[in-house]
Amino acid sequence: xxxxxxxxxxxxxxxxxxxxxxxxxxxxxxxxxxxxxxxxxxxxxxxxxxxxxxxxxxxxxxxxxxxxxxxxxxxxxxxxxxx
Length: 83
Fold this sequence. Notes:
By secondary structure, the protein is an all-alpha fold. It is built from four helices and no strands.
C-alpha cells in the first residue's frame, strides 16, 4: 500500500508539472479547486465531531471517529495552500 501511495503521489506531481507546461492558469485553477474541496470536507468533519461532542450525542460514535479522522488532512492542507 505504501508503494502504491508513493507511486500515485509521484504520478500526480508529474501530471501537475505537465499541466503547468501546457496550460498554467488552468492547472492552478484545478489545484485551487481541489484544495478548496478537500479542505472543506476535512473542516466539515471536524465541525461535525465538535458539534456531536458538545451535544453529548452518544448515538454517533462511529460517525464521530470518521469525522475526527478527517482532521489528519488539515496540516497537509495548510501546507498545500502555500503555493
